[in-house]
Amino acid sequence: MNKQPLRKVRVNLEEHGYDILIGEKWLEQLAIYLNFISNSSKLMLISDRNVYALAGEKVLHILREAGFQVHSAVLPGGEGCKNLTVMSWLYEQMLGFGLDRKSTVLALGGGIVGDVAGFAAATYMRGIGYIQIPTTLLALVDSSVGGKTGVNLPQGKNLVGAFYQPGLVFADLNFINSLPEKEYLTGLAEVIKYGIIWDKELFNYLEENRNKVISRDRSCLTGIVARCCEIKAEIVGQDEKESGLRALLNLGHTFGHAFEALTGYKGFTHGEAVAVGMIYAARLAVVRGLISRSQSDRIASLIENYGLPVSYGDLSAGDIIDSMYRDKKTVAGKIKFIVPTGIGVSEVVSDVAEEQLLQILKL
Ligand SMILES: NC(=O)c1ccc[n+]([C@@H]2O[C@H](COP(=O)([O-])OP(=O)(O)OC[C@H]3O[C@@H](n4cnc5c(N)ncnc54)[C@H](O)[C@@H]3O)[C@@H](O)[C@H]2O)c1
Ligand SMILES: O=C(O)C(=O)C[C@@H](O)[C@H](O)[C@H](O)COP(=O)(O)O
Ligand SMILES: [Zn+2]
């Protein structure tokens, strides 16, 4: 049976535009949608241990049955493997399997696999094709789309990387079934982000349909994933390399990346750190007179009601500020923050004094 995607979202770019195909229980159809890749070119499936155990062999089988030559490389998984040591190991694997400039990488996994495999594709032999097959909610709604690839340094998140777009995002919502609760909530943090920065209706929907969303109701999830992909495609289509608008997708990340780095990438998942960061971004907006206290409280309540953390624990405010100076958005010593200016609207501010930061970090 040839199953069709439930939804299709196009990322319109001058060069390298691509489709996000969202389907359900349709992994078997993957090879059909790889028809733009020559059977003679080698494929490399990159995954992590958990996802490989879940679906790796199945994907290899599907592709081999369709005549592709495919090898696999399995990462240990977790934020701890998003680094240059793992990249270097991956290049060895790619060379060892004889990947050439016509080869294609398939990133089967969450945001970690997607970012690492995407960066490997961006840099191996100066760039080969790759495809995203997202398996976490976070990857479905955010990381598989838009072409941000890269790795962390001990000093900070994603400090080495490239903008490099995939040729296709092949999304199967069925992967959400096996996702642990913590990882599901992590993805919801980025979903909430879209509601705050861009889409008031999405925000209201999340407020009004908490139980359905939490219980992973399928039709509700299809709508959420498609809407988030549409928003991201719209933003990336207007500003692929983050010269302006795209920075809005970083709401909560200036704080969040600092929380992640300061806890050695072990204290928070990415989405959890972003959740806390969004609360602080909203507080910053309040002290700058950009939103009302009640709107900021509404944002914090939504985050809390979805079971996400609301505090950065016992980190020091001074260390957080020092870490934020290393954020990629910091230019000429000015840290940039994305702040909500209402529900569904946001802007960038970059003239925040340290005293103001200390004031809100101590709230
Ligand atoms: N490139 C971007 O635009 C972008 C956007 C957002 C986040 N990110 C990055 O994404 C990373 C976080 O991604 P993540 O939250 O997906 O984490 P992840 O990739 O580590 O996945 C979370 C955990 O879930 C497991 N898993 C994955 N799919 C599963 C499934 N279907 N069933 C059961 N277990 C499964 C993984 O093995 C892992 O243990 C961070 O490094 C973050 O910086 C990138
Ligand atoms: O795609 C984007 O643009 C984003 O900012 C999405 C974020 O959710 C994501 O975490 C991204 O990797 C952060 O970007 P960075 O440039 O701050 O590393
Ligand atoms: Zn993020």
TrEMBL record:
Catalytic activity: 7-phospho-2-dehydro-3-deoxy-D-arabino-heptonate = 3-dehydroquinate + phosphate
Main location: cytoplasm
A GO term for molecular function: metal ion binding
Annotated residues for binding of Zn(2+): 190, 253, 270
Pfam families: DHQ_synthase, DHQS_C
Source species, domain of life: Bacteria
Subcellular location: Cytoplasm
Family the entry assigns: Belongs to the sugar phosphate cyclases superfamily. Dehydroquinate synthase family.
This protein's name: 3-dehydroquinate synthase
Organism of provenance: Desulfofarcimen acetoxidans (strain ATCC 49208 / DSM 771 / KCTC 5769 / VKM B-1644 / 5575)
Upper classification of the organism: Bacteria, Bacillati, Bacillota, Clostridia, Eubacteriales
